[in-house]
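Researcher: Please predict.
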Amino acid sequence: MYMTDVVLHVDETLDAQGRHSLEDEMRGIDGVISPGFSPRTPHLMIVTYNPDRIPTGKLLQEVQRRGYHAQHCGG
């Protein structure tokens, strides 16, 4: 199994419970291995995933589908 990471910037300011809830929801998506917010930069969600199971764009769509404004960070 191949794994990679993507960094998603969530525009909204989420409290600890909001970040935890979004992590739990993302964890339930097929292909997502480990979603987590950076403690030092709480707008950044780092998602480890299997690109053979889910493409990067779909991860972003899943965050947006939950009502958040988000962008993919990096090239």
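Model: The helical segments are 16-27, 56-65.
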